[in-house]
Amino acid sequence: MAEFEFDAELWLYPGKGGWHFITLPADIAGQIRFLTEPKTRGWRSETVIARTGWTEWTTSIFPDKASGSFLLPVKAEVRRQEKLVAGQVVRIILMLNRA
Questions:
Q1: Residue 53 confidence (pLDDT)
Q2: pTM for this entry
Q3: What is the Cα–Cα distance from 14 to 18, expressed in whole angstroms?
Q4: How many angstroms separate the CA atoms of 47 and 62, rounded?
Q5: pLDDT at position 37 over 90
Q6: How far is 76 from 46, CA to CA, in rounded Å?
């Protein structure tokens, strides 16, 4: 299982729903593309296990045309547990969850 660790800003999607995301750094996105290219899933999403602070969750990252990277959604429960707000720089540990 490939593991990546990075710091990135948590941001709020300006549209409906109040979704919060972290955009993966370009170098990590490139490594993930390299590792996953032979077995790409629908919409090119990738299942991951993410961790920040003491909180770990399973989710998917999704490609983002605007940034050329992947977006990591950060659930409301995670934000509550870790006291995270939009604009905050967050330390993330990300593990590809490939079968």
A1: 97
A2: 0.90
A3: 7
A4: 9
A5: no
A6: 20
